[in-house]
Amino acid sequence: MKAHDGMYIGGEWRSAAGQDTIAVVNPVDEQVIAHVPAGTAEDVDSAVHAARAALPAWSATPPAERAAKLTALRDHLVARKDEIAATISAELGAPPAFAQAVHTGLPIAIAGSYAELAASYAFEEKIGNSTVYQEPVGVVGAITPWNYPLHQIVNKVAPALAAGCTVVLKPAEDTPLTAQLFAEVAHEARLPAGVFNLVTGLGPVAGRALAEHEGVDLVSFTGSTAVGKTIGATAGAAVKRVALELGGKSANVILPSADLAKAVGVGVANVMGNSGQTCSAWTRMLVHADQYDEAVELASAAAAKYTVGDRVGPLVNAKQLARVRGYIEKGVQEGARIVAGGPEAPLERGYYVTPTVFADVTPEMTIAQEEIFGPVVSIIKYVDEDDALRIANGTVYGLAGGVWAADDAEAVAFARRMDTGQVDINGGRFNPLAPFGGYKQSGVGRELGVHGLTEYLQTKSLQF
Ligand code: NAD
C-alpha cells in the first residue's frame, strides 16, 4: 500500500514536523503494510492556520459553486472506488464485497447527497421584517474512527464543505491510508488550498491538539463515549460547538405478533456486518418469553452460517480482539449461555472472532449494558411490552434499534416510546438522508441529510 510521509496541508503534501510514524497493520494476516507520519501539535497548528486562511474565500463562495466542487469530489471518489475498497480491505480487513458495496458505495452516495443539498438548501429566509442567514460555523476539527473509514470522513467533511466551513481531519490511527486517499481525491477535485487538510496521528496527541485548538470553531467527533466526554468537556469550557457520535447498545425488539424467523435472521445479520464493529448494531435481541427458545435456536443456526474469512472479516486490531474476547468470557462468568461461537480463536492468524450468540442474558449483565464492538448478539427475554420497553431503554445509550410486529402501526407505537435516535420498522432499510445520531450518551447532534448540514451552520438575523 502506498502511503504518504507527510501531511496534506494548504493544498499540498508537507513534511511532518516530527519523525515518528504509525505502523498500519492488515488485520487479516497481521502484517505491517505501511507507515504514516504521527502528527504533533505543530502539524495540527499548521493545518488549522491553513484552514483559517482558506475560510473567508470558501465561506463566500456561492453555494452552487461549492456544490460543483462536491460533485467533482464525488466523481473522483467514483473514479478511484476500486482502490478505495482495496485500501479499506487492507487496513480494516473488510471482506471485498462489503468493502465495495458499503464502505465505498455508501460514502459516494452521501458525497452526492451533499452536492445536491449545497445547491438546493435555503441558506437565506425571510421572517417578518428580518432576513435570516445560515452562515458557516467556521473551521471544523473532524476526528474520526476506524470502523467505517471513508463513511465517517465523508459524513463530516461533505456537509462541512457544503455549509461553507473549512476542515482539518484527524482520522483513526488504524485506518489512515483511506484518509490519505481521500485527501488525494480532494486535491484532484481541485478544492481550493486549505479548504480540506489532513493530519494523521495518535488520538491523545494529534486528536487532542485539534480538539483543544483555539482556531477550531466546531469539533465533530465519532468514536468511544469515553473520549467523547473529554472532547465535550473541552469544547464546553471553550464555548465551542461540538458534535458527538458515540457508542450504542441498540435493541432489536421482536414483538409477539412478528414474523419471528425473519426478525431473528435480519437481527443476526445486522450484528455480523462489519464484524460487529458498527455503533448502531442491534446487539441486544429482545424476545417474548413464549418465543424465547425458538428464537435462540433460530439465532444460533443463523450465526453458524456466518463463517469467518470471506463472509465475516477480522476485528481491526489486537486490542479490539482482546477486548471482545474479554467480553465473551465475562458473559460466561456472569451466567449467560453461549449457543453459537465463543472466545476461542477460529483461525491461526488474523484478529478473528467467531460470530457469537448468547442466550439467558439478563438486562443488568455487562454484555447487555456495554458496547462490545464485535460479532456478539445477546438474546434477552421479556414478559410483556412494558418489560420490553424498560429493557430496551435500560442502558446509557440510545443510538438505533429495530422493532418487529405483524403490522407497522403496532411497531411504530412501540418505537415512539424508545429513547433512541433511529428505529427500523420491520426491517426498514438504511436511509442515507435520514438524521443519524444519539439520544442519551450516544451523542449530541445529527449526521446525514439536511440535519447533518445544519450542524455546520450558525444563524444571523438582519432586521429591516
Ligand atoms: P477512540 O474513541 O479512542 O478513537 C476514535 C478517534 O478519536 C480516533 O481518531 C482517535 O485517534 C481519536 N482520539 C482518541 N483519543 C483522543 C483524545 N484524547 N482526544 C482527541 N481524539 C482522540 O475509539 P477506539 O479506541 O478506536 O475504539 C474503542 C471503542 O470505541 C470501540 O470498542 C467502540 O466501542 C467505540 N467506537 C465507537 C465508534 C462509533 O462509530 N460510535 C467507532 C469506533 C469505536
UniProtKB/TrEMBL annotation:
Catalytic center residues: E245
Keywords: Oxidoreductase
Pfam families per record: Aldedh
Gene3D superfamilies found in the cross-reference section: Aldehyde Dehydrogenase, Chain A, domain 1, Aldehyde Dehydrogenase, Chain A, domain 2
Domain Aldehyde dehydrogenase: 13-461
SUPFAM superfamilies named among the record's database cross-references: ALDH-like (SSF53720)
Keyword Membrane appears in the UniProt entry: no
Cross-referenced InterPro entries: Ald_DH/histidinol_DH, Ald_DH_C, Ald_DH_CS_GLU, Ald_DH_N, Aldehyde_DH_dom
Source species, domain of life: Bacteria
Similarity section: Belongs to the aldehyde dehydrogenase family.
UniProt name for this protein: Aldehyde dehydrogenase
Organism: Streptomyces violascens
